[in-house]
Amino acid sequence: MRCSFVHFGDVHLGTQQYGCPERLNDFGKAWLYACEYIATTHPDFAICTGDLFNRFTINPVTFDQAYTGLSMLREAGVPIVDIQGNHDRTRYGEAKNWLDSFADHGLLTHLDILTGPDGIRLLPVRPGQSRGSFVEWSGCRIVGLRYLGASTERILRELGPSLQHFGDDGAFRILVLHAGLEGIVPGVSAELTVSTLEPLREYVDYLALGHLHKYYTAANVAYNGGSLETWALNEWGWERGLLHVEIDTDRPQPVSVRLIDVPRRPFVTLRVDVGRFESPRALERGCWECLQQARARVQAERPVVFLTLQGRLRFDQQDLRVNKLEDACREIFDPLYAGVREDYATTSFDTEKAFSSDEPVDRSVLERQILRARLAEDERYAPVAAELAGLAVELKELALHGADGAHLLKAFRAARQRIPSQPELTPEVAKHAEVEP
């Protein structure tokens, strides 16, 4: 028996990422590209493994995107099955979702098992209908289950006896699940383990998976194409796309799979170690250079740009002008969206150790020591932390005793002459001290 089909999933239509309407269109374009590929290559059928939509409520634009793509497949004479993922599942208290609606209009076949007090039942899709537990096309028997979460392995064990006899007549057996495999994405808890796959091989010839947005295969039975567009920032570098599957049961290995790339919006992700820079201005210059170097390497138009700051910050976090870094991203790349992620550690300080004695502490001494400890954590001010702490306490006392602004500024300038070195001043301090920042 020979046949071919296209397997994909996690389209996430309706995703308006980062609040950008154009990102909603990007997800629609990826879907329509997939539908055009299927309509042009004309396989025997197509399989969507869930999350056609990003959520159970969709807007008119998302409806139009879904309808246009499904109509393209219907006009090309390529039937498609879909199952309910965790994103497009029925809203609580409602009996019908959008997959049911499109199935009722003959645009897709919605597969799912029936569960009840009597156990699991598999109902065939009847002629002229578009709903059921399994369908038979081109010598393949395709069974589909909705997203089951933590119950996935238990349901599969219960379903095993019902599926076991499905291949007795020589049909090629396909099981469609919206579930991921443990270990594919580090740190992500998945619904299936490798040990689950071995017993599945007894009654499944091809396990069509979705849910994880990364391309992978496992044990010569499990296949996942990944998402069509970049749904999360950490996914940009992952390989993913459509799986064009050729079946030939006369071969020792009947399944051959080709990964078809789907064009998507480019992402530029840059990481800068803030620990290399001793001041906010030095960090801004370093980020500017990093962005310019990246721009020379990336020629794509209007990418999504993310600049991640990591490491340990060597100066006060409040002096870091994140808006200036975002402006630099926009000026250099003209991106669709630009974001700066603050993933660094700030230097902490502990004043309790210095005052562990039970003896009473003079308030002015305590203030001076706390200010000195705090200033010493910023490398710009560490060499003169004691002098700056004294200056702060002196100005505070003058203010408490009624000194006006002119008197305070005069005292500030006089104290500045006594400080052995001049640290870089923040724009706010420089402004009031009439010093160029």
Describe this structure in words.
- By secondary structure, the chain is α/β, with parallel strands linked by helices.
- The protein folds into three domains: 2-260, Metallo-dependent phosphatases (Purple Acid Phosphatase, chain A, domain 2); 267-346, no CATH class; 353-433, no CATH class.
- It contains eleven helices and 18 strands.
- Strand 10, helix 5 and strand 11 form a beta-alpha-beta unit.
- The longest helix has 21 residues, at 21-41.
- The protein starts with a strand and ends with a helix.
- The model is unreliable at 349-361 and 422-437 (pLDDT under 50).
- Count of the domains: 3
> Beta fraction of the residues?
15-25%
What structural class should be given to the helix and strand makeup? alpha/beta
The poorly predicted ranges are 349-361, 422-437
Helix count equals 11
CATH third-level topology of the largest domain = Purple Acid Phosphatase, chain A, domain 2
| Helix and strand run | EHEHEHEEEEEEHEHEEEEEEHEHEHHHH
How would the global form be characterised?
A: elongated
Top-tier CATH class of the largest domain: Alpha Beta
Largest sheet entry = 7 strands, mixed
**How many strands appear in the DSSP assignment?**
18
Radius of gyration: 31 Å
Whole-Å distance between the termini?
Answer: 77 Å
CATH architecture of the largest domain: 4-Layer Sandwich
The side-by-side strand order for the widest beta sheet comes to 7-4-3-2-1-14-15
